[in-house]
Amino acid sequence: MPVETSRRPTFPEPMSASARVPAGPPAQPGGGRTRTGGAPRKRARAKDPLWARLTVIIGAVLMMTSGVAIVGSKAVIGQATGDIAQRNLLGGAGKSEAEGGASLDGPIDLLLLGVDAREQWAADNVRSDSIIVLHIPASHDQAYMISIPRDTEAQIPPFKKSRYRGGTDKINAAFQAGAANGGGWEGGAQLMAQTIKNMTGVSFDGAAIINFGGFKKVIDALGSVRLCVSQDVKSIHMGLVNGKPKYIANAKLDGDKWEPLIHKKGCREMSGALALDFARQRYGLKNSDYDRQQNQQQLIKAMARKATQNGTLTNPVKLQKLTKAAGESLVLDTGGVPVADFIFTMRGVTANDLVMLRTNAGTYNTTASHREALSQTTLDMFKAVKEDKLAEFVFANPNVLSTRK
């Protein structure tokens, strides 16, 4: 593969048939970095669902610590991600050469964008309501998840690809603005990444787009996940038909008699449908989207933990089922580095090393214009991310730790 000296190489057009994205909402991109200590490699872009890629990455990392042969692990990772169409999700928000470029030696910062896409929605009319910055320090032995509130007021810069002129809006609108007028999910991710970089100063090594709908398949491949509900919450999406969960819209269309589905306080195993529904709830929660952020982080951690507890990562049949489900839910960009190398670098991170952090202390920080804003403590937290001093910051500011486990 030819060596590129620039941080984010461009892609020739047209792309080969194997890299093209099928009709319908764009699949999520994937990508890679250079091997540690090597020269930067050309960035491959994949378009697959985001949730899937995140699961593959975390799962593969955990696989490295589970006694599986390293060569076999890389082969599995390569097979699982080999046919993912790849795209540039970061644009100008990728790390510059001065910030480490495509080297995997230093800290690693990933942007994870969750979308709730449905077939009837246009590909350019989707907002990203789940925005997570995943920080891995240079020691590569821990990972921190920081969620940015969807209603945060942001200065969204102009974006030529979608003919967006720039403006002030909720930050989740950045994805929609970048995807409009043919920008697609690639454009949406690029504009979101640039908006966050401008706001926080953090540049990224990679990104992923996760289709939350695809998470159901991933969780079902795991069997279930254990989640803790901190307060009773009534689902606005699903009800119970003869005791079984069903989307309310479908129940109405089918003329079914349904009852409200209540996620009761307490810890329990949840199926893919119930876990996904719980993680999507916002209305009825004490701190609305802030509580939902913590629940979504909890879901990611629960998935990673379950993968190591039920033998999935050491059972070839279970692993194949999991990676297939994941590959249908994600789009990944690993900054020009082969996915296997990227994952191998993070082999010291396990599910128990995923630390969940809160912005704005987990509650509202409303401005005079009735918009949410990042508090000074939160901005200082992102400064610590940029300087790779997050562990010290968390120690000095324990209130940023999530109350979820």
Would you mind describing this structure in some detail?
It contains 12 helices and 14 strands. The protein has helices spanning 50-64, 70-81, 173-179, 184-200, 212-222, 248-254, 272-280, 289-309, 316-327, 339-345, 376-386, 390-396, and strands at 45-46, 108-115, 128-136, 143-147, 153-156, 167-170, 206-211, 225-229, 233-241, 244-247, 259-263, 266-270, 330-333, 354-357. It has a single domain (26-221, 311-400), classed as Nucleotidyltransferase, domain 5. Strand 9 and strand 10 form a beta hairpin. Residues 1-72 have low confidence and may be disordered. Helices cover 34% and strands 18% of the residues. The strands form 4 sheets. It has a 6-stranded mixed β-sheet, with helices on both faces. It has a 3-stranded antiparallel β-sheet with strand order 10-9-11. It is α+β, with helices and mostly antiparallel strands. Helix 1 (50-64) packs across helix 8 (289-309) and helix 2 (70-81) packs across helix 10. Belongs to the LytR/CpsA/Psr (LCP) family. The chain crosses the membrane at residues 50-71.
